Automatic annotation (TrEMBL):
Signal peptide limits: 1-20
Pfam families named in the record: Glyco_hydro_18
Keyword Signal included in the entry's annotation: yes
Highest classification ranks of the organism: Bacteria, Bacillati, Bacillota, Clostridia, Eubacteriales
Domain GH18: from-to ranges: 59-373
PROSITE patterns on file: GH18_2 (PS51910), PROKAR_LIPOPROTEIN (PS51257)
Protein's UniProt name: Putative glycosyl hydrolase
Gene Ontology biological process: carbohydrate metabolic process
Record organism: Desulfosporosinus meridiei (strain ATCC BAA-275 / DSM 13257 / KCTC 12902 / NCIMB 13706 / S10)
Keywords, sorted A to Z: Glycosidase, Hydrolase, Signal
Amino acid sequence: MKRNLATIIASITISAMVLSGCSGIKNSPQLLSPPQTGHQTELPEAEASQENVLSPGKRVVLGFYTDAGKESKESLTRNIKDLDEVAFFWYSFDGSGKLKRAGNVDLSLKETAQKGGAKAYALVHNLDEKGFDSPLAHRVLANNTVRTDFINNLVTLTTEENWDGIAIDIEKIPAEDRNNYSAFMKELKIALKAKNKILNVSIAAKYQDDLKDLWSGAFDYAEIGKAADQVVLMTYEEHGVGTTQGPIASLGWVNRVINFAKGKIPEEKIVMGLAVYASNWVSDSPTNPTYLTYAKAIELAKKNNVQIHYDETQQVPHFTFTKAGIRSEIYLENTRSLSAKLNIAKKNQLGGVAIWKLGIEDPTLWSDVLKDY
């Protein structure tokens, strides 16, 4: 999968960063100061636990919260009764395993989620102003001492700030670190379980194992599925930066990803990603789409007096228009296309769905699609 969230973050702006998965990194990230061990801590042998954080048959709706614009906050407070979990995109780390605040951390929002009945996760990523940092991921994952310090710091974060768990979103990991990442998952799970905390992890979607793939090669689905409590499959960016134009997540592609994952990860641990943004492909930049909110996409259709077409085969809405000689083709996700994807989650008895990201969605998603989930 050619998921380049860094570019998405850079381009998803409407006056300001609105759609991005970016945590709103501004100036120098503030270093947190949890205790550093400076040496390898002995960890017990990893368990191949199949337990789920949910009760049997329970399905969750998870929302990703980011600082870009005010939309995430508004959606969180408006829809908290319909959210089971919220992952706050607020933390990064350095090469020594120390954590950094990479967002506008407002713990009152975490408390809002928890008081509303949702679990709150501190999301930790390797994203900076230039994109996902592959060398950083390698430095931390490949060094046993640093990796252990990183794990200790993650656990300390959950206890000091009263998080229900950790959400890991480390991307663009070198393929050579596949085993290191799997070991990290096992070790982190053991450490979190000792504190009764949850391990949630986001990984690139794929329908076959290509060990050389830049985005998905480092993810061993089977090993990750043994360790993590929840595995969010990022079933979006089927087409994105660096690819030809096309849907964000066609139904056939999502089905292939889920079928591949089910053979390696317990169904009840799989949380299927739902993209709620739009992509705008223009003829003078054919492999570099810009990203829009649902509302902005609808506004463009109305402004240019064009009809939104629905591809019945791919279950994808899209429309085109030409202005000043430049052709634009916009793919989006609406309640109809998201309902079709939600049916995949239901049919396969998955653990839930995850919305990327809160605040940019079709507002009727909550009343028309998720009400019966």
